[in-house]
Known about the structure:
This protein is α/β, with parallel strands linked by helices. The chain has helices at 4-21, 147-161, 203-216, 239-243, 266-280, 313-324, 345-353, 368-390, 393-401; strands at 34-37, 48-52, 55-59, 74-79, 83-90, 101-103, 109-111, 117-120, 125-132, 135-140, 164-170, 176-182, 190-195, 230-234, 284-294, 298-301, 333-336, 357-363. Zinc ion is lined by residues 198-199, 202, 257, 292.
Amino acid sequence: MIGRAERNTLVLAGILFTLSACASVPADCTRGNVRLTQSFSGASSYACTRTGETAFQLTVTPESTPINPSPWYAFDLEAAYPVEVSVELVYAPHAHRYPPRIDRGDGVWDLLPGADVSIEAEGRAATLIVNLASGSSRIAAQEVVGLEQRAYWRDRFAASAWLAQHTIGQSVEGRPIQALFRAATEPAAPLIVILGGQHPPEITGTLALRAFLETLFDPSNPNATLDRFEWLIVPDLNPDGIEHGHWRHNLNQTDLNRDWGPFNQPETAAVRAQIEARVSHGQTPFLLLDFHSTYRDVLYTPPDDLGLSPGNFSRHWIAGIEAIWPGPGSAFERGPNHNPDLPTAKTWFAETYGAPGLTVELGDQTGRDRITALAQTAATALRTYLETASSSAEVDGILSRNLPAD
Ligand SMILES: [Zn+2]
């Protein structure tokens, strides 16, 4: 074992030796025939050191602390010729979490072979060996979904599903907060809110959100029941964090999913204003779903005995999911927790409106085909649930209660 200071000295000596032995290799990571760059939406700007002609060291540091351990990384490797490149990710005091994925320029993300990834120092560092063809490859902790790609998806989805899209506010750095809307046929209707993108690295949540919405609003399988509900959908609530490759926070160093209650941040305040405007026009909050990622596929639900309306939504929805889930095993784990002291979107919704709020969590490493299947199954089961609910006394009650008195 050598100490950290000794190790740093050795690394520095190695850099100096390499650079003096090969004067044509620039010290800057971003220049030369083999380069590491971080200049795209979704990349951070981590300190990079060239430790050899084809070797780099990246210091993976969060935007602020304390913070949940989601050590995101995303960078491009560019080579003028086919070459093997080594990249050391230094996390200390945090630890490696995400197995690296690579897009070799064709838009397809593959996991780097495990044999090419060495986890070191009890996870405080990891070294990746990447065999590159000439050209540019993107390496990241998960698939990179930058702001432009998110805007492209929203535009296409909104057009195909007949949803309107509006800017409902601005992020700390002035980026638009985009929301998708579909108005109910009756003015006083139950309101369903769907959120995503609060935590930038939680890409499996984003993938699930997309597949879920595409199934829910599938234009080839229209469902008049959906028109009885008012829809407010904000897929990308933290555009600054997404743009800058944050681990979790917005640009005010705040976890947005701890701001539902304080509403000190423009991103969360914008959504609340949209909900409140609808409530003041007679609509009734009915359901909130908030898409995230964690270590497994789990639905964090309010307890069944909380007295919310619609009653026992989670139990009915999950039963509907499991009834059509082809397996193997069950679709989602259920984590009934409420945490009234934690100002999350789901808890705020339940506490404020007495309506169910759920966090939909997908595993970081869940197979992408399984994520699509889970999301599609969950959407199909929700359609079925809403069909039943919309002909039930409960929803009729909401509608008649809210009919304007003339
Ligand atoms: Zn999250």
